[in-house]
Amino acid sequence: MSHFIRSNCLRFSLLQFSLLFCLVGLAQRKPEVPVDPRFDPVDLLLKQNQKELGQYAALIWKDGKLVYEKSASEDFTVKMQAPIGRMADWMTAALVMTFVDEGKISLDDKVTRYVPEFGKYMKGYITIRNCLTNTTGLREANEGLQELKKAFVTVNFQSLEDLVNDYAVKRPIQTNPSTEFFYNNLGPNIAARCLEVVAKKPFERLMSERIIRPLKMRATTFDNQNGGATNPSGGAYSAASDYISFLVMLMNKGLAPDGKRILSEKAVAELETPQFADLPVKFMPKDVQGAQSGLGCFAMRNGSDSVLLSPNSFGSAAWIDKCRNYAAVLITAKPEEEKKPVFVSMKNLIDEAIGGNCN
To answer: The pTM is what?
Structure first.
């Protein structure tokens, strides 16, 4: 065989190998969400607000599939991890409900049953339900979002036990439990500590075993990346692709996409039910004013429109529209300062795109 023929055969073989390699790569690559022109106004809104939002990723799930996916750039995709702030509360409440399902804890148990220190400081009537609805009667030193942001820092404590015991001793109780709504991050952390006492395991392990791993939320963690105690309220990191899995589970009445049951239908219904709807509101973020507290989330009712939402005043938000039957999540990369609630306008545009007689 001549050198010319051998060289051409070699080139042809290399070409075949390259094509085969590309085909394998394409087969392994997850197909992108098809572009739907109905959501062009959502694209425009996010683009117009990118300076305010910074890097972001957004997803919409409807009718058993993703119908929208958008990232600010290739540097921050829907699979990239970021702090999610108070969106963690919804997950913490869901974890509590796994214990309720098993009969190991009741929402109306007093926290002194698990953390006796609260009984020593005139705080013995606080219940688990109060902890998940911002109705404990406890307050931060001052109201406001910057005060809440400071409360996310738990580096001065070595464990959730230390953190919650400090609440019992030092956090002022302004009113009796169940008498007013005051938005702060104290309650979910207290409820999480109660779970540690019941299960004799750290909170982050319980969350991993019961929520994160079953839902294959591989980019989600409650481990404190700054050191110090775990913060179940405001201390989680997640990705849009992970959090949408959590929302879909709730839409599916407690079933994971693979059919595994995470929560009972009764537990999901309890999470969604407005709690203490008639209480006076002493402090609530502007972007959810008018909403009522569910467990770890907010519930809005407007005629036939029923929306569950978990916003983060530093940019991110997640919600389920039960009437239009979709879920959406917006996650920003670095929630360093308060941002205007873009998710409100985003939801309005999605609602218009999907349609439905929901008002």
So the answer is: 0.87
Residue 323 placed within a domain:
yes
SS3 (DSSP) at 20: helix
Whether 250 maps to a domain, the answer reads: yes
Q: Which of 312, 318, 90, 317 is nearest to 222 (CA)?
A: 90
Looking up residue 50, the CATH number of its domain turns out to be 3.40.710.10
Residue 235, helix vs strand vs coil: coil
The alpha carbon dihedral of 90, 94, 100, 105 has a sign of negative
State the pLDDT at residue 313: 64
Q: Indicate the number of domains in the chain.
A: 1
- Work out the average pLDDT over 66-89: 94
**What's the pLDDT at 25?**
39
Asked whether residue 219 is domain-assigned, the answer is yes
Residues with Cβ within 8 Å of 295's Cβ and at least 6 positions away in sequence, in order, are 93, 96, 97, 107, 129, 132, 133, 270, 271, 273, 275
At 264, the amino acid letter reads S
Q: How far apart are CA 46 and CA 54, in angstroms?
A: 10
Report percent pLDDT > 90 for the chain: 64
**Which position has the token pair 């969604």?**
272
Beta strands 181-182; 281-283: pairing state: parallel
The candidate with the shortest Cα–Cα distance to 311, out of 76, 158, 87, is 87
Q: Kindly tell me if the per-residue pLDDT of 12 is higher than 80.
A: no
Among 56-60, 95-99, 282-286, the range scoring the smallest mean pLDDT is 282-286
